[in-house]
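re the bet — no i am not wrong, look at it urself. input seq straight from the record:
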Amino acid sequence: MAAPLQYAIVGCGLIGRKRAASLQPGQLRYACDLDAARAAGLAMGGATAITDYQPALADPAVAAVIIATLNGALAPIALAAVRAGKHVLLEKPGALNAAQLREVHAAAEKSGVRVRLGYNHRFHPALQKARELADAGALGPMMFLRGRYGHGGRKGYDREWRADPKLSGGGELIDQGVHLIDLAGWFLGEFPTVEGHAATYFWDMPVDDNAFLSLRTAAGQTAWLHVSCTEWKNLFSLELYGRDAKIAIDGLGGSYGPERCTYYKMLPQMGPPETTVWDYPAGDQSWALELRAFEEDIHTGRTPTPGLREGIRTLEIVEQIYRSSGYSVSTAAVKGK
């Protein structure tokens, strides 16, 4: 049996802590953050706390790097990591723009390392059940899906880093919207037709607080998506419609409400459907399941899904909506060491 992989985590905030909690004891070798106290807090248990990630990349014992920084630092650190021959679990959206991710992709191809994009929603139990049902043909031919995702912000939200396009790359669309785009592509495939718009209705910031998308496959299947940070009661809803049935996924636990997957099977006589409900009251295991998939990518040489290809396409969709809505799109190049 292979020895447990050794990791460095760059970015020791909320997401970095969630990622660290999924590791086995002794797997975390370095905890890196510009805030030395935050790095030290995550390093408790034997890891080394650092404020510069370069020593971790130079350590041959480190096999993989988890990058959970602000959006603006994701791609530069990922580029440095893959050039150093490290596998990378890269938090969504992976970069400020698609061009940055293309540079990371080229470097990863040259180095032969695996890069998985951190879209943990795919690993929520209700989404996993929906995927299982769809793969089994329980929906029949897919027609369309409808997704809604949002939160209500908090006092001072429009003065946080997410409201600064130089650090975030955009607003709600690049923050929560990328999750919906990723899930829509997971169920429906590629979207050659991209329509929609982003808007700033409430918050005093130069980035969007709402976005509305209509994405279509070559066969005409549609993903209708709305993301919002003026959703005064936190909401997650994804509905999949086939010719034979519907699946509804509601909630993500916590402030988004109990997680549930409901299957509505159309009967021959139509009318009220046959209904089956799966409730998932247990804690969120998506982070651990995603890490397990990442390690399987590494051990088997499998191409991660979602990986850089999916991440690039998601950011291309985001950029297309931003441009058509009059928002500036970051053109910053990667400046990895």
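see?? DSSP finds ten helices and 14 strands in the chain. told u. also The chain has a mean pLDDT of 96. so pay up
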